[in-house]
Write a structure and sequence with these properties.
single chain, alpha+beta, 24% helix, 15% strand
Length: 364
Amino acid sequence: MRPLPVALALTAIAAGAVASASGGKGKVVRIAAEPSREVFVPAGPFWMGIAEDDIDAVVTQCEQFFEPNEHVPIIQGGRPTPFCGGYREELSNMSPRKVTLGAYAIDRNEVSVTDYRKCITAGMCSLDPLIAGDERYIRDEWPLVNVSWFEAQEYCRWRGGRLPTEAEWERAARGAEASDALDFGDRARAAELVWPWCEEMLRDAKDTTKRCVERTEDFNHGQPRNETMRSVDRSQNILLLLGDPDNVDGYELIAPPGMYPWGQGPFGTRDQAGNVSEWTADARGVTDLTIGYTNLPGCSEHEEEVLCINPVREGNDRDTRVVRGGSWRQPAFLSRSNLRDPYGVIYDPRRRFAHVGFRCARSL
């Protein structure tokens, strides 16, 4: 069922308020305030990363949903690697770790085309994202796509912020503060927080029967590429694996930001699962010394545990960047809160993609 537009929802609320105020004859209308642009994430720790058992499940889905491994190799660490094999290697170097972050604010919704136009009008942002990519995906009410990593950073700086680090992005999506009812010391339990809506479901740490599951109608995602088209097209272009649109969630293509409020994260963010994938500040490690979280700045080992404080891999202007969150043209499982996008090798910060947008953050 197509999600109810926010404007209609507010109209319904207002109508109900009038009726309840004076039997339908009064003129007093009580309308809920518009949600703030940003949400606040307090300083504190959380579990970041993916458990070993989950890696096997994710790679199995990868092998089911994408082109057979032998057809599209990728370059991982300077050597050709099967697509899903390369993804396994990256995830295997993203083991769970305790990460402590300072307080920060992060956008509730993905940056829209209308938002970005304001920066252009102010003379602080480039017009290129609106004219250099596929125009079919540029609508005022949609999240901005066709935007390079550099242009996204430029917009966030104009707003007085920056792109979120990969750790900030994941904490906003997963929650799991040490002070929560969820036992921070229970790594296995924390590993359940793989969707933005999981924290509330798992808050009662005494109930170990609850499991947080993928809710495919609660976020905007795609499906694997049509099998017939995959069999016909045998080029080596990795973009051909992205997938096809899927309308079971209410939108076949991109949805306006915030249309799935029931899928919001523990701090109030929306669309961190699906809609458009999102640039983060971090460079993506690609060598044996930097793959995944290997030698991630800000992290160190302590008594067989990895502890991190405000981790981020800065990189240089040519390093590919970490993209998170899944999108409207990728299978639902890739929208999990603790997964990187498997197409990481293509995310050159100068390139544009019809499925990649962004949101901003700022330190507090």
